[in-house]
Amino acid sequence: MIFVTVGTQRFQFNRLFKELDRLIKSGEISEEVVAQTGYTDYQPEQYQGESMVSPEKMDEFIDKSTLVITHAGTSSIIKCLKQDKKVVVVPRVAKYGEHVDDHQLEIAELFAGQNLIEPVYDIKDLKEKINAVKGKSYSSYKFDNTKLIGSIDDYLTSLSRSL
């Protein structure tokens, strides 16, 4: 199963969902596709789509999936990487009315530069990237929170000194 998630941003992502329908209809994608469609105004024809799913259902879909297609939201990407899934990232782009700016392009480049995800910068490349991700090895995601813990410790230490 391919799971698609686009987060909870209040923007449409018709470009992605239309391309998925086209690929399924043409037989280029034969796997089952399940999508969390968010606020898109396009209704999938060839696959199951729900606007929002519970966190538990999200985890279940990710767990069952062979790969995940997601927007370039850091939470969505990291959630999938923590579950050791191969991730295809389609950044939302401002010129298509999918977000207010193009920061998701930068996020996708950052994760791709660390060999963690497969980015899709042109929606016409989606099928090629789905095929590529299946045979490619990616780096393991490791969350290093030592700086965060150090900052919290320093802050708490400074508070205790001022008491």
Automatic annotation (TrEMBL):
Keywords: Endoplasmic reticulum, Glycosyltransferase, Transferase. Residues 1-137 form the Glycosyl transferase family 28 C-terminal domain. GO terms for molecular function: hexosyltransferase activity. GO terms for biological process: dolichol-linked oligosaccharide biosynthetic process. The keyword Transferase applies. It is found in: Endoplasmic reticulum. The keyword Mitochondrion does not apply. It comes from the Bacteria. Belongs to the glycosyltransferase 28 family. This is Glycosyltransferase family 28. It comes from Exobacillus caeni. The lineage of its organism: Bacteria, Bacillati, Bacillota, Bacilli, Bacillales.
